[in-house]
UniProtKB/TrEMBL annotation:
<dbReference type="InterPro" id="IPR002213">
    <property type="entry name" value="UDP_glucos_trans"/>
</dbReference>
<dbReference type="Pfam" id="PF00201">
    <property type="entry name" value="UDPGT"/>
</dbReference>
<comment type="similarity">
    <text>Belongs to the UDP-glycosyltransferase family.</text>
</comment>
<protein>
    <submittedName>
        <fullName>Uncharacterized protein</fullName>
    </submittedName>
</protein>
<dbReference type="GO" id="GO:0080044">
    <property type="term" value="F:quercetin 7-O-glucosyltransferase activity"/>
</dbReference>
<dbReference type="GO" id="GO:0080043">
    <property type="term" value="F:quercetin 3-O-glucosyltransferase activity"/>
</dbReference>
<keyword id="KW-0808">Transferase</keyword>
Amino acid sequence: MDTITRKASKGHRLVLLPLPYQGHISPMLQLANILHSKDFSITILHTSFNSPNPNNYPHFMFLPIPDTGNEMHSLSDLKNILQLLNYINTELVDPIRACLERLMKEDERVVCLITDVHWFGTQSVADGLKLPRIVHRTSNISSFRSFVAPVLLRDKEIRSARGVNLLNKLNKITWQKSKGKKVVPITLKTMDKSEASASVSRLETFEVKDLPKFLPSDPEGKYKILEVMVKGTQEARAIIWNTFKELEEHELEALREDFPNPHFLIGPFHKFFPALSSSLRTQDQTSLSWLDKHPPKSVLYVSFGSLVRFEESQFLEIAWGLANSKQSFLWVVRPGSVEGSEWLEPLPDGFLERIVEGRGYIVKWAPQQDVLAHPATGAFWTHSGWNSTLESICEGVPMICSSSFGDQLLNARYVSDVWRIGVKLENGFERGEIENVIKKVMADEKGLEFKNNIINIKRKVNLCVKKGGSSYSSLEDLVNYILSF
Ligand code: UDX
């Protein structure tokens, strides 16, 4: 590949199609900004559900897919994710084809379609229009490997390190097992301890319990979706990652075996372009003035991303764990994130006044990247979404991980066991464990060790996005690659 970057002439147009969720829209819009800075013209193709705000991006063209948004809205709860993916990859495929055809007629310099991997149904559209399709995977490589493991390992019948037939093990998770006369879905509750802690072949770092949890109610549906997603990714011309080589070189090599496509590791995206407003919610800027009043590294920032929801009992364990830790905290509680409540109603009478007043601050949504960069922030209690994890790494803030679903489980395992930059809460939400872990990370020797490790990675991040660094060079390669189409 050339080492000198060819410049896209204004007009080489890229069409980017994000999955309409916060954790997917933000990195796709950051990627769009990065490519725009390389002189590509940008069109954002988007659903009306969770539409990004075009006013924040006057330099892009926005093209709404003509859908009503109602169907997607009714499927927006996480428990309907399979139906939603099915819907967008079948019902929206024709409207997307029509949009692209029209755009390509009006502008003959459309050179490439870049979609989230979850838009696997668009591969046939791109093929039909002879438009190269590249995919962007918003998670990291490690978690992607675990994500696709059921499909790839099933194909190959690989045996696990402990001689247990992994295929069977995965089937147990993926499908169902018999209990007496009943067939019960496999969940961590129905699995015995040794099954849950078994190691997984070729995914050395993971234990079975870390593999992404899906809906036991529809294992067949999950498998089919994974299968087409794997196929759609393998058929794409390349894969773009919001990660960097120094962090995942080993995982990339392992992935190449099944995904021989060109891979471009050009993250962390937000190091090239600090967050423009891709936030779908209003960020409460008083978070920052509140942090201003606190000494360096004294505040625990608590946020569980844009999708995770809690039962009331879990929410109360979090609240009491925070209160009993006696540490200062800034806590994001998204309205509607606690089952059956609008916002903070489940908190006991007087909790806010007596316990939280002065030491804690609760907001509905924070300017997260600025919060993590604030000198007062000492640690981050997170759900381990990839954007949050990456943002924390970039600011050198150690983590407490409470993963919930999908890639979060793997991210948390890597944070605690591989990169050693934080700790994973292993027992869900239990106030005693929470209190101890917060003290450990904020005030203990262990916290210092995490801090040193994460600062080391932060240094590598700063280098990789500079001229000659791995992400910088990979971006040059990506531009050249697109211009070679
Ligand atoms: C989802 C999945 O949960 C995650 O596992 C996957 O990697 C991406 O899709 P989400 O739950 O939103 O994402 O988490 P995350 O990936 O961490 O993204 C959240 C984004 O919202 C971050 O960029 C964060 O900076 C932003 N955010 C979060 C705010 O701006 N304010 C907040 O108060 C909380």
